[in-house]
Amino acid sequence: MKKIFPVILCGGQGSRLWPLSRPSYPKQYLKIDHQNSKTFLQETAKRFNFKNVFTPPLIICNEEHRFLVAEQMREINTKPLSILLEPFGRDTLPAIAISAFKLSEEADDPLIIILPSDHIIKNNKKFIEIILKTAEYADQGNIITFGVNPEYPEAGYGYIQSENKLNYEVCKPEKISRFIEKPNLNLANKLILDKKFSWNSGIFFFKTSVFLKELEEKCPEIFDICKKSISNKIIDLDFERITKDLFSNCPSISIDKGIMEKTNLGLVVPLNIGWSDAGNWQSLWEISKKDDQNNFISGNVITDKVKNCYLRSEERLLVGIGIENLIIVETNDAILISNKENSQDVKNIFKKMVDDGNKEAKTHKKVYRPWGSYTSIVNGEKWQVKRIIVNPGESLSLQKHFHRTEHWIVVSGIAKVEIEGKKNILTKNQSTYIPKESKHRLSNPGEETLIVIEVQSGEYLGEDDILRFEDNYGRDK
After folding, report:
1. Which CATH superfamily is domain 4-276 in?
2. Tens digits of per-residue pLDDT, 309-359?
3. Using CB atoms within 10 A as the burial measure, which of 129, 162, 414, 457 is most buried?
4. What are the angstrom distances between the C-alpha of 409 and each of 309, 327, 432, 446, 453?
5. How far apart are CA 9 and CA 170, in angstroms?
6. Topology annotation, domain 366-470
């Protein structure tokens, strides 16, 4: 059998898992819990670590997260076939189309399996077996999706109706009758009583030529734009950047609406592998390991008379007394408290915060960069203090600011400092001052992590007050 090409979709904000998941650092790049060393994305990539069956994954992500993807793949010793960069999200169909055009350059009509990057699969061995059994149906010209046995009435999932009842004990595909978008709870209660309905896993399997032919017939505009966009891609370090001007005209639509609801080639394969999209705190609690009081507890948490709760502390001590059926999630700048039954409503609060311009909606205090990270510690009207972490051998850009001065104090490691062409080495407890409009750069020439406290002072302290002259990571702002 010819090899199967995994495509991992890394778009999406994961807004229903706020405050942990935010646009600056979405769900797919998070670790599932403190006991798991792998992120959602890393778990997805490692599922297909069978070189005799699968190629290395092709990953498509937002250009803002490109270094997160590259670093997380490096951590698990995985070299992707390619990392494609979308200048903006356009839902799943354009992302899949871009990937299909790209892979048609790599092989002769390859089989492609499309995978969300942020789902949980407990029985990976069985999942791989089902994919291999299903490959013949995809190779025969069908577009396969996978339906999960609905265990409870979930209003956060889409549903698939098959022509016949699904048998989850055997890998037998059934023709698709229709798709239902996320239903209300009343409808979901009715759907789970009918064995023809399954949860839509968002996983698809097809032959490239079959998908592209359907795309050209059903969505010709997307076909043309995506074909031109990938033909004019730009190589940027380890990434392939999709042409922004062309891709900006692409409509936003899911593969469900654009292809699956219109095609006659759709088959649904029953999937019984411990699947969850972990799309909200309630569903994450459902699949998590709990204590004898039915609580999931992660981080620095103390409880007394607590039942059926999801309690997660990222930094501070979290104490719960005499509570039930609550979701409590603590980060260094926000705390979420919700009844489990209302966890779907987090997305509505997220939207309201975005509309109100609340900065905690989109970004964490800790911001990741290709050279390391920085954390906002405290700030005032015209000053702020940050902790800067620079990884060994990495360097910030050669830059200057027009509205602020900076003080750097080294608290750990060795710093190489360049100011207006003059270079110095600083060690623990040493400091330097960068005047406004001075061309400067901070580097870590050592083998240990460099930690610097930065004190900024000025009329304007925004991150966009920067002019880059040189950058090792291809950033222009």
Report:
1. Spore Coat Polysaccharide Biosynthesis Protein SpsA; Chain A (3.90.550.10)
2. 999 999 999 999 999 999 999 999 999 999 998 998 999 999 999 999 999
3. 162
4. 42, 39, 7, 16, 5
5. 28
6. Jelly Rolls (2.60.120)
